[in-house]
Amino acid sequence: MTGPIHLDDRYDEPDQLRDQLRRILRHRALIALGLVLGLLGGLALAEYRAHTYAATGEVLVRSTADPFGAVGVSADNQVSMTTEQQVATSAEVARRVARALRLPESQANGLASRLRVTNPMKSRVLRFEFTAGSPRRAAEGANAFAEAYLTDRKSRNDAAVRRATDALGQQIRVLNQDLAEEKLEQKDAKTAAQSQLYTLQKRVLDIKSRDTDAGDVVRRATAPHLPVGPGLRILLALGLVCGLLLGLVLAWLRSALDSRIRSVGELRGALQTPVLGILPDDEDGHDQLLKVGRTGGARAEAFRALAFRLRKTDGPSGPGQVLVVAPRDAEAAEEVAANLAAALAEYGGEVLLVDADSDASGLADRLPLMPYEAPTLEEAFLPSGSVLVDADVSGRLAFRSGGGIGTHTRSSLSTEAHRLRPGVESTTVVVTGPFLTHADALAVAQRVDGVVLVVGLGATRQDDLRQVQELVDCSGGRLLGTVLDAARPRRRLRLPRRRPKYRPASHPAAPMELPAQDGTFSVSRR
Predict the structure, then answer these.
(1) pLDDT given at position 145
(2) Helix (H) or strand (E) run with residue 410 in it
(3) pLDDT score, position 295
(4) Which residue, among 403, 386, 405, has the nearest Cα to 445 in the 3D structure?
(5) Whole-number pLDDT of residue 318
(6) Each residue's pLDDT tens digit, 97-148
(7) Contact, 493 vs 364, CB < 8 A?
(8) DSSP 120-141
(9) Would you list the DSSP string of 182-250?
(10) Tally of helices (H runs) and strands (E runs) in the chain
(11) What is d(CA 249, CA 235) in angstroms, rounded to the nearest whole number?
């Protein structure tokens, strides 16, 4: 019987949606900023609208736009309401309004910009809406535009009457002159001229008898009681909604442009390697570097779980030599290396912690080292230049400062022969400076059994992880896994580097030499 088939559902739509929501909700500050901006925008709009009033007046347009050439045409077809709208907003009407309100004609354009003329569908009504800073001015402006429009339209109708009557009067004068001078000798021609003269005179009377009024004001504008636009509550609600949308868009853009590691899934997707452990934040607030065997808490237990997983990665005893390194943070790698070495020593084995940072990171000053004394018979096989670490563990934990790997180690690693004790496991944990800024780290990665990469949550970029993986693969090294440090970054006071007090004069500093994988060292705890 075959076992269950585990399908890769990373691209399932519900998972993608949840992951996208988590990415957006990480940037709560941007969402809050969008809400604040929306609220301020709503308040600003409410403040602006609070001093803006609009009054409306209506005018009925009569069908006398061209009463002299529209005989037999219906009244609705004699008026072009679109044309009348354009005339109502013309500069001439605005100048009439400026004179009526006793304002300079230079302000006519400003008055026209605050006017809105509309025409309800299927009607001959023009609606004048004027906006001003006070209710009284809004009503005066709307009524002034309505009256100015009617006055302008009446003047245009009167001008059309004068043009028509002047043309007919010219024809009448010519006929009267012909009849007076008796130029028409034939009786039929004279009769026809008299008939034409009568028709023209009747036409003039009809034109003069027509009503040339432009229209009627069917509703005068009154001072409004409330400002234009929605109220304060509605504007605030709209501002909050728009601000929320703006915040979500900003958060989405920020999450799309942010390449830092924010979750275990992103870490696995960037490196395709197992996550050996997740280090929580130190709730107890201990500033000690070594927590395993010295203090308790969830972070110390996470280091013990990391050591257990690491021992199972390469056989029952785990890899013999491990390099703990971070892409760009040396302090995180130092803490993980020290506590990992202490956790491995709790299993009863012998662990050597080696500081191979050529820049002298100060790890020796932060560890609880025992003062150096002449080695006893049991300590005769303590590695050269190393000293014991004072930790409450079952095995033996020693520390050695390599002082840099040097050119000698870059060419080849020296093999130190140590006497093996039957049934005792031995592990060497090496810590160096940042992988991407220190060439020593790459040289050590070529000669150890595995590399453990320390990744800071929200501090390490995916591009750095991919670059580290490429360098390790090119150098022939082996990336065992990653450790995700979820602790909040703390600012530590960097003390000046002091010369280690434990190093005896008979053991001068030398280039780092890793012990052979099949070798060990024998030390005793004090």
Answers:
(1) 92
(2) helix 406-411
(3) 79
(4) 405
(5) 58
(6) 998 888 888 888 888 888 999 998 888 899 999 998 888 999 999 999 999 9
(7) no
(8) -TTS-EEEEEEEESSHHHHHHH
(9) T---SHHHHHHHHHHHHHHHHHHHHHHHS----EEEEE-----SS-SS--HHHHHHHHHHHHHHHHHHH
(10) 15, 12
(11) 21
